[in-house]
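Example record for the data management plan.
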Amino acid sequence: MKAPPIVLTTGKRKAAIARATVRKGQGILRYNGVPLELVEPEIVRQKVQEPLLMVGDRVRGVNITVRTRGGGIIGQASAARTAVARGLVAWLKDDALRASFRHYDRTLLVNDPRRKLPKRPGGRGARARRQKSYR
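Corresponding structural encoding:
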């Protein structure tokens, strides 16, 4: 089977949205215009690298570019992780890889639907309430 010339995928987490572009190349991953090796903090780098480590040497033939926006740094990293995993599955067309991703962590392929609750009256947040004093 012939690989497509380019694969576009997306990932979402909370308010963050990531778009990944997978094309033929030398195995370079760029995260928001920066090579992944230079991304700080380290937890973000590790989160985005997770699907790459599971694929192994087959990732050497593709270049991946990830652009994120919205949310915080961890939400963006989680969204990028989903986008990269989806892009690799679409590029390699491997059902065994899809099954291993799903078995390891379902959020590699499926967006996390959890969202922040809206603030409600009577307190500082969604759940916190002002304390009462009766005496």
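Summary line stored alongside the record: Residues 6-106 form a domain with the Ribosomal Protein S5; domain 2 fold (CATH 3.30.230.10).
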